[in-house]
Amino acid sequence: MTVIMDGSVIYFCRFSFLGIVFSWLASFLTQQPFLGIPKSIFYIDSTLFSERVVIPFLRICGFEVSKLDFKLLDIKDENGELLRARIPRNDLFEIENEVVGSDAYKSLYHESWQKDRVKGYIKKGLFFAPLKSTDSIAQFVFIIEVVAWHMRSHEYAKSVLIMGNRPWFGVFRDYAAERGIDLYKMKFSGRFSFDKSYLRSILIKYPRLYGILRKFKYGQTWVKSSIRKSAVPKLYIEGRGDLSLINDGYNSDFFWHLNSEFPRKYILYNHCSKQEEEYFKSHGIQSVAEGSVDYEICYKKPKLCKDRRFIDEYRAIGDILSSYNFQKNFFGSFFKTHSVKVFLSWFKFSNSHMAVADAINENGGVLAVWQMAFDGYMNIESRISADIYFCFSKFSQKIDKQLGSDIKYNIVTGYPKDYVGPLLREEAIRVREKLKSNGAEKIVFAIDENSNDDERWHSGHGLQRENYSHILEKVLVTPWLGVIFKPKSPRNLRKRLGSVADLLAEAEKTGRCFVYEGMGKYTSSVPPVLAGLSADVCIHGHLGAGTAALECAFEGLPTLLIDSEGYLNSKLYELPEGKVVFKDWPETIDAVMEHFQTPGGVSGFGDWSSILDELDPFRDGKAAYRMGTYLHWLIQGFEKGMEREEIMYETAEKYKKQWGADKVLSTLK
139: how many CB neighbours lie within 10 A of its CB? Predict the structure, then answer.
């Protein structure tokens, strides 16, 4: 156990008076000294009582107590790679190997984990959670790196970091020790959490109670058996809230249907209001209230062995297994009620799709996932387990193989939204002509991302303000320059921009600035390429999230990337620096102005041709057609009463024959 000597530097993840008292008492009872007299005390968060009483008292007594000031964008390794990128790309894989190889994991392991996707669900459950989540391993590791960064900047050779207890604490102690940090366990954090996620974690242990409360929440009644008896095999969509059934190029959860011959009678969607229900009904789509079931299925819960030495680990895995069992039972009931044979989703980032896959497999169906975002590097959150995965290219399949994804049929379709350009060109020209009529001879499209208030766990509003302020300032002093914005989340854009919103309003008054503000249920309904087609050059302010830029590049538009964050291991770094990849906005704007003022433009400026074939081998505008046709072949097999394995095999063979054997890949060993 750590002994902290006089003169030490101490970091608290959460400064809590009760936590210190309990830890001090525990160390006294075990005769393992906890604290001496520290030279400096730093903390990341604190309880309200500590903030207002304890910390001021310690300062009066002569202690140096400071809140650790840091921003996510500042925390980079010695190579300049953003730790937010490196941790899920590298560190979490190493920690996962340590966890799986530990005595705790081996002692708790039960043979029932070998069935279906249980083991994969457990592993991803342990390692998935957003960085901002206090329960996530990613945040735990990131805090260790923050302390290491702070130590380097102040030339501290050694320090002590006191954090809340968590399973496999010894693994993280070793990780911290490599960075000169003694990691110590806080016995009591002083944190009482009664948020929605906490309540859900309690309720999923009692599925019937959860089901009753859920029905009260949505005002649901039991589904009539007649729906079940008359149902044809259904494809259920887990969508993104883009409900449009008009093929106008705007975002739609039905894009694959709108661009293929997939019949609407096979589609099932969930509605969240009477208005949505009527909309779907008028377009020939069957929809149901969220979670409506008739059958109640109860699958046997996977077990785990118990070892009193590893009580924290036992509870962690037990909670994950409860979640797995709840999700499998819930979706199994839903699929059987509505005769769902194909579940189509885009969301691969948590472990929930694995339980859904097992549920639909038990129902004789298949789980299909389509690649929504470009993955330019390995990220543990992107590991998936599915029957079918519609991906962009062989490069995407290569990433999945490195991740250890378990995919039976990996189907290369190309970029799924490559059909939208011709549908949007006329609207894009109208916007372009509007800006030109006000003097804009050259137009830039600036691509942003969403942002968050707390810059410790997110890139924050500051970086998004840079995506607007630099180009707006240039537009205001350059009468022949225009700019177009297509915010990822337009609903609260101007609030997030702060004072930069005034700059935006001033630029809009010139008539040379336009903002696409169309909003879907959750994010913008406007595809990036619409704004791109209105512009001469597209600039994405986030190389680490390059899907919007890729969409524009596929359309043949000059497209630039700014990597002010540090995603150095992205595939996109194969593009030429100084012509496509830049480090900041001032450097980028200087290059754009040079390009605009050079007769014929700078050669190779914004040119992605060197890697486009590798990222989409088709580029023919038919990716959505291929995906919809593949899904249609699957559902036809189910309508004929064929078995799922036979259906998947025959469908894959059809696809090979039409599009090439190299377009059907697998990560199965």
Answer: 20
CB-based contacts of 432-438 (< 8 A; 24+ apart in sequence) = 432/533, 432/534, 432/535, 434/511, 434/514, 435/482, 435/484, 435/511, 435/512, 435/513, 435/514, 435/534, 436/482, 437/511, 438/482, 438/510, 438/511, 438/512
pLDDT at position 199 is 63
- In this model, does residue 462 exceed pLDDT 50? yes
Contacts of 663 (CB under 8 A, 6+ apart): 411, 412, 413, 617, 655, 656
Which letter, b or e, does each residue of 181-196 get, where b requires 16 or more Cβ atoms within 10 Å of its Cβ? bbbbbbbbbbeeeeee
Q: Is the dihedral of CA 396, 402, 404, 408 positive or negative?
A: positive
Using CA atoms, how far apart are residues 290 and 340, in angstroms rounded to an integer? 14
Is the four-CA dihedral 244, 249, 253, 257 of positive or negative sign?
positive
If one compares 262 and 131, the residue with the highest pLDDT of the two is 262
> How many Å apart are CA 192 and CA 198, to the nearest integer?
10
Structure tokens at 59: 């300062």
pLDDT 10s digits, 542-589: 999 899 999 999 999 999 999 999 999 999 999 999 999 999 999 999
Q: What is the reported pTM?
A: 0.91
Query: Max Cα separation, the chain?
Result: 80
Do residues 139 and 457 lie in contact, with contact meaning Cβ atoms separated by under 8 Å?
yes
CB neighbours (10 Å) of residue 202? 13
CA dist 240 and 128 (Å) reads 20
What length does the chain have? 669
